[in-house]
Specification:
globular, binds adenosine-3'-5'-diphosphate, alpha/beta, four-stranded parallel β-sheet
Length: 285
């Protein structure tokens, strides 16, 4: 799994786009073939935007709130990466991806799959990502915070430009079945957002279930849940003593890391990058 994760590093986008172009030869199935007709639900996000959180919510929904069943495997096995699917997944087929919209295999569109996209404000993503680069050993050294921030702004990080990613999926939501969620909204009122997900998945809004999911997927619960907090991954790959994967789980931590000068140049750059888009983020709640 982690050898595959390393593919995601610096050349990820190039490799992924080649992979999806590959045709079936010598009985080697293409990724598209593996997916067919696996389409059901897909959860997409730029990194550090609540992937693990929403995955746990979705798994709880499909397992009808059965905490014991959810606790049988780590979250990265219950909701695997689309990019790493090696065999046809059993139903319900729930996969996650960090791919930008233009690299999603076209069968997802053709099969009218339901897609839930979770976005988080750029400043908190940059901070969260910086800590993850340090603890997850598949990444190159991130350098100083300032160096990393420059790379983030330039899109020179795994999975590319945050700006293009969030805008690309935002524009696509008009033509496809996409529920576009925000980390900040989940933080503000997780029950409200869980109801939105239930509705989107055409499930009854059972308030007891909503309550159970909100409790089980709270930061406090997930942080201490070994099936959700990534502590099942060996230390040589993820070193939680450097920074835990479940780090702070708040909105606005960027204020503890951005200097005034960094914030000013980030805001100016952000304005240029997001010009013309109707997409709005909250950097505090
Ligand atoms: P922080 O580093 O800011 O704490 P992803 O799963 O997409 O990689 O996102 C990881 C970020 O989501 C981390 O942010 C992590 O703490 C946060 N997170 C994970 N589960 C959460 C939860 N239940 N509630 C709030 N934040 C959560």
């Amino acid at each position: 799994f982690y050898e595959l994760v390393s593919i995601a590093e610096s050349h990820f986008l190039k490799k992924a786009s080649n992979l999806f172009k590959t045709q079936s030869t010598n009985n080697v199935p293409t990724v598209e073939w593996l997916l067919w007709p696996a389409c059901c639900s897909l959860f997409s996000h730029h990194v550090f935007s609540g992937t693990t959180w929403i995955s746990e919510v979705i798994d709880m929904i499909y397992k009808e709130g059965n905490v014991k069943e959810c606790g049988q495997k780590p979250i990265y096995m219950r909701v695997p990466f689309l990019e790493f699917l090696l065999k046809r997944a059993p139903r319900p087929r729930v996969v996650k991806t960090h791919l930008p919209v233009q690299l999603l295999p076209k069968l997802f569109w053709e099969n009218n799959c339901k897609i839930i996209y979770v976005a988080r404000n750029a400043k908190d993503v940059a901070v969260s990502y910086y800590f993850f680069y340090q603890m997850a050993k598949v990444h190159p050294e991130p350098g100083t915070w300032d160096e990393f921030l420059q790379k983030f702004m330039a899109g020179d990080v795994a999975f590319g430009s945050w700006y293009d990613h969030v805008k690309g999926w935002w524009d696509k939501r008009k033509e496809q079945r996409i529920l576009y969620l925000f980390y900040e909204d989940l933080k503000e009122d997780s029950r409200r957002e869980i109801r939105k997900v239930l509705e989107f998945l055409e499930r009854p809004i059972d308030e007891q279930l909503v309550e159970k999911i909100a409790h089980h997927t709270s930061f406090k619960e997930m942080r201490q849940n070994p099936m959700a907090n990534y502590t099942s991954i060996p230390k040589s790959i993820m070193d939680h003593s450097i920074s835990p994967f479940m780090r702070k789980g708040i909105t606005g931590d960027w204020k503890n890391h951005f200097t005034v000068a960094q914030n000013e140049s980030f805001d100016a750059h952000y304005k240029r990058q997001m010009e013309g888009s109707t997409l709005q983020f909250r950097t505090e709640i």
